[in-house]
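Q: Here's a chain of 213 amino acids. Please give me its 3D structure as tokens.
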Amino acid sequence: MTRRSLVVVSAGLRVPSTTRLLADQLASAAGAALAVNGEVSDAYEVDVVPIEVRDHAHAIVDALLAGFPTGELSEALDQVAAADALVLVTPTFQASYSGLFKSFMDLIEAGRLRGKPVLLAATGGSDRHSLVVEYALRPLVAHLGAIAVPTGVYAATGDLGGGASEALMARIERAAGELAGLVGGGQVVAPQRDEWTDPTPFEQLLGRSSSLS
């Protein structure tokens, strides 16, 4: 049986945290999607590896000051680099990803995530920050060379109270399916157009805005 490694990075600061709750929902859905991807006769066995960034907080600061990670933090970074697929989940701080999450990502050496399928997710206090995945997380992983699935997942505090809402679960399932498609060489592929080197003209963006108003 073919084995797949799914590493789930959660950057919540409290225990329990809504970030970890969302990470667990995504891990379950993505793990199930990866397990059935491909031919039915050749199902995958999925190893889900959770990484709680807060557990490495002191080691992250030490690594940033010393210039290199050691111990369990180094092992966690190696697990991220060796994974077949990643799920990255951060709380929203000051309208962006948290500083602890960014510091962890800063320790990943250039090129180690190139071509890696990634599912992006974030949590926040309200729906006002629902675009954080698009304007903060997606550019970050693009810079690292990873391939993010088209569907990002955002959950406000109320979305997870008493269990994930139906709309949130539908989005989780769709994102998980897209991640499985990337890992198994399915229909989901990286965009052919690079928005960084070939940006959408501002006039065109204004036109879209006008059509929606």
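Q: Can you summarize the key feature?
A: The beta strands are 2-10, 44-52, 85-93, 96-97, 117-124, 147-148, 153-156.
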